[in-house]
C-alpha cells in the first residue's frame, strides 16, 4: 500500500504535463515538439514505472527508469510528427491549408470553401491533388490513425448541418482511400455546428467554422 500516494502524485504530474502541451502554437523551434513529446513521455513513463514496482525504496528508482524510457519514446513520436508536418507543409500546395503539430498529433484544417461548393459534398476537382498529397504522406507514415471531421457554421437547421458535415467528411475519406490509404485507419464523421472555432455572428467567423479537420494520431 505504500506505493499508492507517490503513484497518485506521479499520475497527477503526468496529466499536468499533458495538459500543458500547447495545441495550436508552434514556436519556430524545429525540435519543439520533440522536446514536448519527451516531457510528456517522461511523466507517463514515471507513472508506468511506479505501477510495476513492488513499493518501498524501489518507487523512486522505478519511476526514474520509467521516466527515461517514456522520454525516449515520447521524443521519438515528437520527432516523427515534426518530420511528417514538414513534409505535409511542403507537399500540400495551398497556403490556406493549416497544419498544426500539437506534440501528440497533427491537425490538418482545410476551409470548406476551398473543398466544396455551397451546400455540396462533392470535393472540388482542383483540391483533389492536395488530398492525394495528403494520402501519399499518410502512406509514407503508416503508423497512425486518421479522424476526418466535418464542421459547419450555424446557418440552416442543426440536422441539415450535421448531415452535410458527415457527408463532406465521407467525401474526403473516399478520396484518401481511393489514393491508397488503408480504410481501416480512417474514421469519418461530422460535428455539424457543434464545435465552432470562431463567432458565428460575423461572415469571417462563419467562414472559419466551415471546415474539415484531419487529425493524425501516431499508434507507435
Automatic annotation (TrEMBL):
Coiled-coil ranges (or none): none
Matching SUPFAM superfamilies: OmpA-like (SSF103088)
The entry's keywords: Cell outer membrane, Membrane, Signal
UniProt domain OmpA-like: residue ranges: 103-220
InterPro entries: Bact_OuterMem_StrucFunc, Gly-zipper_YMGG, OMP_bac, OmpA-like, OmpA-like_sf
Localisation per UniProt entry: Cell outer membrane
Secretion signal, residue range per the UniProt entry: 1-18
GO CC annotations on file: cell outer membrane
The name this protein goes by in its record: Outer membrane protein OmpA-like peptidoglycan-associated protein
Organism field: Rhodovulum steppense
Amino acid at each position: 500500500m505504500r506505493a499508492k500516494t507517490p503513484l497518485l502524485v506521479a499520475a497527477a504530474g503526468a496529466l499536468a504535463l499533458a495538459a500543458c502541451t500547447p495545441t495550436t502554437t508552434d514556436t519556430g523551434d524545429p525540435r519543439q515538439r520533440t522536446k514536448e513529446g519527451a516531457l510528456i513521455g517522461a511523466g507517463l513513463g514515471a507513472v508506468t514505472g511506479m505501477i510495476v514496482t513492488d513499493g518501498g525504496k524501489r518507487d523512486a528508482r522505478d519511476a526514474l527508469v520509467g521516466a527515461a524510457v517514456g522520454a525516449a519514446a515520447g521524443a521519438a513520436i515528437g520527432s516523427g510528427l515534426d518530420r511528417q508536418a514538414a513534409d505535409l507543409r511542403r507537399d500540400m500546395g495551398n497556403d490556406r491549408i493549416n497544419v498544426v503539430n500539437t506534440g501528440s498529433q497533427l491537425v490538418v484544417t482545410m476551409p470548406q470553401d476551398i473543398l466544396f461548393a455551397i451546400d455540396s459534398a462533392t470535393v472540388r476537382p482542383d483540391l483533389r491533388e492536395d488530398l492525394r498529397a495528403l494520402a501519399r504522406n499518410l502512406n509514407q507514415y503508416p503508423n497512425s490513425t486518421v479522424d476526418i471531421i466535418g464542421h459547419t457554421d450555424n446557418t440552416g437547421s442543426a440536422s441539415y448541418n450535421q448531415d452535410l458535415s458527415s457527408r463532406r467528411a465521407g467525401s474526403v475519406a473516399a478520396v484518401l482511400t481511393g489514393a491508397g490509404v488503408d480504410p481501416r485507419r480512417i474514421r469519418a464523421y461530422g460535428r455539424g455546428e457543434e464545435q465552432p472555432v470562431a463567432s458565428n455572428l460575423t461572415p469571417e467567423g462563419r467562414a472559419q467554422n466551415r471546415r474539415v479537420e484531419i487529425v493524425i494520431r501516431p499508434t507507435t
